[in-house]
Design brief:
Distance between the termini: 82 Å
Radius of gyration: 34 Å
Low-confidence stretches: 48-52, 158-165
Helix content: 40-55%
Strand content: 25-35%
Structural class: alpha+beta
Length: about 160
Amino acid sequence: MFVLSVAGVLVAFALALSLALGTWRSYQAGRALEARLQELRAAPRPSAARQTSDTLPLPEISERFDINRRILDALSAAGLAPQQIRFKFENVDDAGFVRQTAVFTLKAPWGEVAKALAALQGADRSLYIAKLHLEREQPGDPMVTAELQVAAALVAPTSEGGAAP
């Protein structure tokens, strides 16, 4: 009987010790959570102006129009002007830049198209011919139709001010 009462006391002591350790762990976890909560309260809050994954980081608008102007000036210097031109922007995440592309078609003799290509490549080091497709209606026809994509690789801005919606 004495052995049973000693065993009962040991079990009660073990339960009390387990309860005390559980309470201590809960207290420590509560302190850690409170400290983390204080850190989060002190941290700057994200604002709506920050760039999100569905926005395209674009250079300043003046820089975008300057690139367009250089493309059009180079074509004008070569004596050609496209009747229609489209501009598009693509984010190249792996490389860390935004590609601005001008897409247009020229119809002229091959010599004039070649001058336009040289003028475009000489207009600015950041401009390059991304795609060129040449076509003639008839063999020996002096006129060619050139479908061009002229692109510029622009470093993505670090500020949120240049992000497009």
